[in-house]
Amino acid sequence: MADATNESPTPESAATSESQPGDGRLARIVHWASASKLRMALVGSVLFASMGGVFATWSYLAHLAVNHEDQYTLARALEALDEKDYSKAKNIIGEMQQRGTDPEEFGGALFVLGAVKAALAEQEWSRDRQRAMHLIAARYLQKARELGVPERLENTSRLMVGQSLVRGNQPQTGIEVLKKLLADDDESTTKIHKLLAEAYQSIPEPNWSAALEHNQAVLADEQLDPASRNAASIAQADILGRMGRLEEAGKFLEFAGSSDAQQALISTISGRIAIEQANRLPRGSEERAILAKRARDYLQQSLQLDPLNSMLTRQAKYWIGKSFEVDGNHEAAIQRYDHLNKAYGDTPESIAAMLAKADLARANQDTEQALIGYREVLSTVGEPVTYVNRLLPLSTLRKRLLNAHRDFVDRQQYAEAMALVDSLQPVFSLTDATELRAQSHQQWAESLLERAASAPHWDAAEYRTQARYHYRAAGAAYELLSKLRYASRSFIDDLWRAGENYFLGHSYSHTQRVLEDYLRQEAQKRQALALLRLGQSQLALGEYAKTIDTLTECIEMHPKDATVYQARLECAHAHLQLDQGNLAEQLLRDNIVGGSLEPSATEWLDSLFLLGNYWHDSQRYQESIQTLDEAVLRHEKTDKTTRDSHNAEQAMLARYTIARSFHSAADKPAKLAQEAKTESERQKNRKLRDDNLNSALENYLHVQRMLTLQGNVDSNELDRMLLRNCYMMQGSVLYQLKRYEEARKAYANISTLYQNEPFVLESFVHIANCYRKLNKPVKAKGTIEQAKLVLNRLPSDTDFKLATNFSRQSWELLLNEMSGW
Question: Could you tell me which residue, 18 or 425, shows the higher pLDDT?
Answer without folding.
Answer: 425
